[in-house]
Amino acid sequence: MTDANTSIAMGHAVCAGLDKGQTPIFVDLSLVKDTNLSAHEAGYFIGASVTSYCPQHKSELDGSAF
After folding, report:
1. Cβ(11)–Cβ(30) under 8 Å?
2. Is the pLDDT of residue 65 over 90?
3. Whether the Cβ atoms of residue 27 and residue 16 lie closer than 8 Å to each other
4. 13-53 pLDDT, tens per residue?
5. Nearest in space to 23 (alpha carbons), one of 51, 52, 64
6. CA 47, 31, 36, 7 torsion: positive or negative?
7. How crowded is the C-beta side of 23, counted as CA atoms within 13 Å?
8. Distance of CA 39 to CAs 1, 9, 44, 56, Å?
9. How much is the pLDDT for 3?
10. 43 and 26 in contact (C-beta within 8 Å)?
11. What contacts 63, CB < 8 A, 6 or more positions away?
């Protein structure tokens, strides 16, 4: 991700995926495929996205591979 606007848009996309019922692992793999993030970095990005934009999904991350 090259700039703040892209990062914000991707953060909202993470939440949209979770809203649709996608698993955090699926979202992680999608980020790895669609960006230059490693799986580890994508996990951190998902955590930051959930904390910032969709905290209602936090319980889906607890105890996960992230």
Report:
1. no
2. no
3. no
4. 999 999 999 999 999 999 999 999 999 999 999 999 999 99
5. 64
6. negative
7. 7
8. 14, 19, 9, 23
9. 87
10. no
11. none
Q: How many CB atoms lie within 10 A of CB 35?
A: 16
At 28 the three-state DSSP class reads helix
- Position 56, amino acid: Q
Is the pTM higher than 0.85? The answer reads yes
Question: Residue 36 is encoded by which pair of tokens?
Answer: 């230059």
Residue 9 has pLDDT above 70, yes or no: yes
Q: Is 44 in a helix, a strand, or coil?
A: helix
Locate 24 and state its tokens: 């955090």
Q: Is the CB of residue 58 less than 8 Å from the CB of residue 50?
A: yes
